[in-house]
Amino acid sequence: MSKIFQNLKYDLPSGLVVFLVALPLCLGISLASGAPFFSGIIAGIIGGMVIGVISNSQLSVSGPAAGLVAVVLSAISTLGSFEAFLVAVVLAGLMQIALGFMKAGVIANYFPSNVIKGMLSGIGVIIILKQIPHALGYDRDNEGDFAFLQLDGENSITSLFSAIHHIDLGATLIAIIGIIVILLFETSAFKKVSKIVPGGLAAVIVCVLVSELIFKNFPILAISSAHLVNIPVPTTTEEFKALITFPDFSNITNTPVWIVALTITAVASIETLLCIEAVDKLDPEKRITSTNRELIAQGIGNTLSGLIGGLPITSVIVRSSANLNANAKTKLSTIFHGFLLLASVLLIPSLLNKIPLAALAAILLFTGYKLAKPSIFVAMFKNGKYQWIPFVVTVLAVVFLDLLKGVGIGLMVSIVYILLGNLKNSYYFHKENYEKGETIKIRLSEEVSFLNKAALRETLDHLPEESKVIIDATNTTYIDFDVIELIKEFKEIKAPLKHIDCELLNFKGIYQINSNFVSSTH
């Protein structure tokens, strides 16, 4: 408990920054999904206040995800109503809970780091591409739309050129002011202040004051309502109740509802596990999240969201990265952001509607840069082609397709390079470097699988005649049967034909090769 209070000075301001980022995204995703306007806010509130409490991730922030927009849009059309779709969300939540108890979260351990880094950098590039138009005051595309092909008929690239031809001077200046404030808070001169007030929060405050106190007095600079946050303002209890939709469980026997539920379960669970894995890698304290508990937390959140009219929820890297960049320490920041989403709708919607979208674009541009810094690309290139090729492929696929397709393609390329790496001849013998009479030693690794068979065969086939070779299994705990057969064949047949003296060292237990030609221990 004392640790929670000790970190309040970090977590509360961080939660406020995440709230400011999440608010327009929740609304934008609702619009992009063809769902009721308030459904994204409900999902954001539950993602913070419910999932934030149950999950043991300290930095991850959950809410409606851009990756599910296409699924939701198609499902509502297929099922015929939003009420029927909500039944599928409830069922998906229950399925996620079951997956958590079945320990399905273990699949997160099989995501290669180069693919995770590629996913993060790809999302960073998307954020930058999508937020530049908002920074210039070109707000035709919804905040929650992260797809390359946009709903307005443009794409992430053409939208940049359109934005350049429709620059709003006031919005652009607001974005520039916001970026300057954030950069100032990154300098050593503001180090003490930034520990209490994150740069993103300071940027929003400064931008709102400039917009309201200065720009409003100059028509050419005034920010129009089209470039401001726009959340519903219910004035009565009845209007507030009208914002909430409930599921129609008479649709629970419909097969299409179950198909949609399975789709949401798969997409939401994979996106969550990817995000959790990525956030754990970004966490300065390197804390490890229980992926099984996360699936249960997400399942409870989605069940509740479906019951009260919310969109499907996943852990979201954009909000999580903003949370991390705002110096959050514990999940209290996530919970606080959910509380603020609820309070904002009930208490201060009119005040929030004064925030320029360009000010929020400044925060997201900085977040995107942090995820896709040039130094990350340079570091991956230095790691060699077996790392950087899957990394670059993942980045490009995430940007031009979507997160799940991008990660899937990255995984396939990564697997190909893992196979190539194993097939690569680590012991290839170059005859020009060999001096007659020299002993060649081949040390087997701790585990020798069938993937190493081709490399070992290549090595043995290139050994010079009349040489001496020692195959050392001192450090080996596992040898695949196919590899044992290969070594036995070489020892008994190929080596004598080339007059090679082959000695096997420390092939223990079941891996001993017994024949008239073999000595298993020396």
From TrEMBL:
It is found in: Membrane. It comes from Lacihabitans soyangensis. Keywords: Membrane, Transmembrane, Transmembrane helix. Its main location: membrane. Residues 442-490 form the STAS domain. The chain crosses the membrane at residues 12-31, 37-54, 114-132, 163-184, 196-215, 257-279, 300-322, 334-352, 359-381, 387-420. InterPro entries: SLC26A/SulP_dom (IPR011547), SLC26A/SulP_fam (IPR001902), STAS_dom (IPR002645). It is a multi-pass membrane protein. This is SulP family inorganic anion transporter. GO terms for biological process: transmembrane transport. One of its GO terms (cellular component) is membrane.
